[in-house]
Write a structure and sequence with these properties.
Elements: H1 6-38, H2 43-58, H3 61-79, H4 93-118, H5 122-130, H6 135-165, H7 177-188, H8 191-220, H9 224-228
């Protein structure tokens, strides 16, 4: 059916999933840092985070991907001689793709996490400090568990969009599922078959993700609805 290209497509699927998970890790770290900056008492950090989220969410993902890959490579090779490196530095497409997607979705998760934290009654954190908890203990024991539950719908949506956005890494030479499908389509002249197979691969990832995220939502919301009745 797939003319022997199924193993190649599965390799591409694994790479796509790896890019998505690595990008998610970067995005979560940037999102937490961005949310903390937006909620800080420092005007400098608030403005910096606002500039970050405004610019990143307003520029197309493909443009950012190309800017980071080609512009970053140019910048690195201009700085390399000053650091005593004479050889040409070639940026790995996987690193460039993960960095770009993580940077992009970090901006979206910044707003997701910020909104979730703001939804938690401020008096709970004050009560924790009144009991002698440190700021870290307040965050870990009071804020974080509730933030995870409140942020899950927005987090789930961003994850599903991120998975589909990994298709962009094929334009910078990474042999992900789209790149593999394109190679197979070119060799067999059956583009519909192989791009349909790639679509099925993305649908598989998002469908499994939906099941896992719904299970997490039920677990983290256990007792919450009953308490509101």
């Amino acid at each position: 059916m797939l003319h022997g290209y199924l193993p190649s497509l599965l390799d591409g699927l694994r790479l796509t999933l790896g890019v998505a998970l690595a990008s998610l890790a970067v995005a979560v770290l940037l999102g937490l840092a961005g949310a903390a900056a937006k909620l800080s008492h420092s005007a400098f950090w608030r403005r910096s985070a606002t500039v970050y989220t405004t610019l990143i969410r307003g520029v197309p993902d493909l443009v950012l991907m190309l800017l980071v890959f080609y512009g970053g490579q140019l910048a690195v090779n201009e700085l390399a001689p000053q650091l005593g490196i004479d050889d040409y530095v070639d940026i790995d497409p996987f690193v460039a793709g993960v960095a770009t997607l993580g940077f992009i979705f970090g901006a979206y998760l910044t707003e997701t996490f910020r909104g979730a934290i703001l939804a938690i009654p401020h008096g709970q954190a004050e009560a924790g400090r009144a009991f002698g908890m440190t700021p870290l203990q307040v965050f870990r024991r009071i804020v974080l568990p509730q933030m995870l539950r409140l942020a899950l719908p927005g987090f789930a949506n961003n994850w599903l969009v991120l998975v589909k956005s990994t298709a962009l890494v094929s334009v910078i030479g990474l042999t992900d599922m789209m790149q593999k499908a394109g190679q197979a389509a070119g060799a067999t002249r059956e583009p519909f078959t192989f791009y349909l197979a790639a679509a099925a691969g993305y649908l598989l990832i998002t469908s499994v993700s939906g099941v896992v995220l719904r299970a997490l939502g039920k677990r983290w919301s256990a007792g919450v609805k009953a308490a509101q009745l």
